[in-house]
Amino acid sequence: MFRFNPASLLWRILDSLGSVILISLLWLVSVALVVTAGAGTVVAYEVCRRYVLGKDAGAWAVARKAWQQSWKQATVVGLLAAAVAAVGIVTLSYLPTLGLAEVLVPLLVVGLFLLLLVFWCLPLVARFTNPTWRQLRNGFTLGLTTPSLTFLLGIAVVVAGVAIWNFMPVVFVAPGLILVWWCYLLERFFVDRGYVQPEPEEAEV
Known about the structure:
It is a single chain. This protein is mostly helical. The protein contains 9 helices and no strands. It has helices spanning about 10-30, 35-50, 60-95, 95-100, 100-125, 130-145, 145-165, 175-195, 200-205. The longest helix has about 35 residues, at about 60-95.
């Protein structure tokens, strides 16, 4: 007989899947509006962080607080990322005439800048209080001096893109999965580097 048991493996999996879909939808809507892409990414990252750390605060309360605290700075960084993405789209439009060999390097450079802005700079905006120029400097510095993490992230984004291209419904899960996974890696990275103090649960031996 089917019984509701919140502690069971099935319900934990369903709860995690629901959280990932919620994060994906939140992020996709903010990116689609362009102007809110930066702030939406910061909000999605903060929701992911609370989820990764096992915090009990509701998603909407966390999202509202993150929006109020970081939307101005995140919007500036987000618009910069949108400008870089626009350069990538223009470069991609030359593919039929110039060929892949001519546009591959510019596309890789644009992709790298976009990865650094979205997955390094914006999480720093969500996590730390600094002037915008310092958030950008720190994000680019950490991303470029930690090539293993950045390269791993690039592979994950490419794999997710291929999966979405071949099976569109994956778009409701893949962005959230990448963000939760990346948030988990960043939280460990920040603790290992001494930028933040570990949570009490992590500090216990």
